[in-house]
């Protein structure tokens, strides 16, 4: 069987290393031949390198062809992944508490772009604020290849050396990934491993060895060829993968020579790492939180190293121009991750200023981290819950680290997307139970499956729709597929005894949808009772995301236990402005009077019916809207974990206007 489909790529940032590696993993689950075509080029979905070389960007249209026994299933799963349903979205890096320092008031050394004071070098700052400390020069051992060609009789032994080293290297990368200091580092190492095990690269090395090149020369040459092809792409993310390819080639060459690479783990605590290049592999296998800062002569803001530095809030500057090679001899260095300025061996004045700024940044970070266990109340004594939005159990740790008071939105669709089979009741039960047990004494709001025609999931058939965002998505899709919905509801009922579970329905536009769900819950309860399976109960809430739900908030409040306003969708539907379309971004804003009026209507209806009202869209972490939300009667805000301390602080500084404003 052969199938074909054109797909608009919705994967964030396009097919760069991590999604390419995920796509390869997904493709390997099928027997079918899967080929992706972009422009005049095609790539098999089992080669992450070839996928990268397609240079597919977010928004591009690709042609997906599958052939073989499970071609239809492969087409559905891969097109679902390509159109944006990848689990890797959950791993997007988020700023850490320490990154709050980068938002500290600009100091004397935070200059306008392009300005460079005396004694300073300039690069691209990736945030993290100021740092000063002793230098840790990070220099890898030199590589030496034998001069002259390998005699023909020694070439197969040369190739065996390469293969042996490749197996050892891959084992090491996988071990590092298993012990990675963060989910982001683990994802990056996994993507690097997929480059290292790429069959095309191995074939290119073998071809060079067969031509008589010594192993090291062959590895570096094959790595360079691939890196150059990647570097020629216009997408900065794909270009940054050229760095990864060179790095992997160097590591393999070192392994062939029996040399161990220098590790960032050798960096003394608090020292500033100064490197020529800092590869994702080097950075991913160390605990960055121990380093005081990073300076890299090469590297871009989109390199893995920069992404990880940002995720940990480490002051970092990449691409530092150093024509006189001052950094090579420096013993102390000061850097500003905000302005991108670097001072090798700073003068005493500069050093003093940096020390003062570092102390200020530390105090700010400490002040915010001190809020970790704080349950914030406004100045006039109104408590407000600040909870986390999570996509999987992987996010629990981060949410707790930032002091989440429970979960205000768990997007369960991440359990269903980008995989080959639907999660069964046992898997869902165990996931929900894990989340509930992670937040004892706090509410955990789990949203039922929110997918639709734009995000096909293998095993769920959705008709082709002209306008999927106005189609069979969210609760509409679940009610149209009771067998699918019941699996989730049964899992939720069984998980309920393990914590304070609340369940909410996405995309509600009519009270009949709440009623329909209650009827299914009753069926599930009867089944579980008959099967003698333990279960509990949960509050059933409504996500307010459609203008209809806002306009009939009073009717919905009468049949529901709580409201959580999904400002991302509510804004796009109220403003009729696609939330993904940058050309209407100026209209798609939550602070528009029309959206704010809708929010006030909803919060007021909740108050009138004695139910609580929260916000779980992006706007929940917008401090400039906090006062409006609180005055409207919103008492729960749920957001990306890294934003929690800042919003807790803002709540502590707010005073409610009384009585709540009317629409
Ligand atoms: C929202 O629409 O605001 C929301 C939280 O849901 P999602 O972003 O998952 O659509
Ligand atoms: Mg939504």
TrEMBL record:
HPr domain: residues covered: 2-90
Substrates-to-products reaction catalysed: L-histidyl-[protein] + phosphoenolpyruvate = N(pros)-phospho-L-histidyl-[protein] + pyruvate
Enzyme superclass (EC): transferase
Required cofactor names: Mg(2+)
Query: EC number(s) per UniProt?
Result: 2.7.3.9
The record's annotation in Gene3D superfamilies points to: HPr-like, Phosphoenolpyruvate-binding domains, Phosphohistidine domain, PtsI, HPr-binding domain
Indicate where this protein resides in the cell.
Cytoplasm
- The superkingdom listed in its UniProt entry is Bacteria
Which InterPro entries is this protein grouped with?
A: HPr-like, HPr-like_sf, PEP-util_enz_mobile_dom, PEP-utilizing_PTS_enzyme, PEP_util_C, Phosphohistidine_dom_sf, PTS_EI, PTS_EI-like
Q: Name one Pfam family in it.
A: PEP-utilizers
Q: Which GO terms describe its molecular function?
A: phosphoenolpyruvate-protein phosphotransferase activity
| PROSITE patterns on file | PTS_HPR_DOM (PS51350), PTS_HPR_HIS (PS00369)
Keywords, in A-Z order: Cytoplasm, Kinase, Magnesium, Metal-binding, Phosphotransferase system, Sugar transport, Transferase, Transport
What family is reported? Belongs to the PEP-utilizing enzyme family.
Q: Function of this protein?
A: General (non sugar-specific) component of the phosphoenolpyruvate-dependent sugar phosphotransferase system (sugar PTS). This major carbohydrate active-transport system catalyzes the phosphorylation of incoming sugar substrates concomitantly with their translocation across the cell membrane. Enzyme I transfers the phosphoryl group from phosphoenolpyruvate (PEP) to the phosphoryl carrier protein (HPr).
Indicate what this protein is called per its UniProt record: Phosphoenolpyruvate-protein phosphotransferase
Q: Which species expresses this protein natively? A: Pannonibacter anstelovis
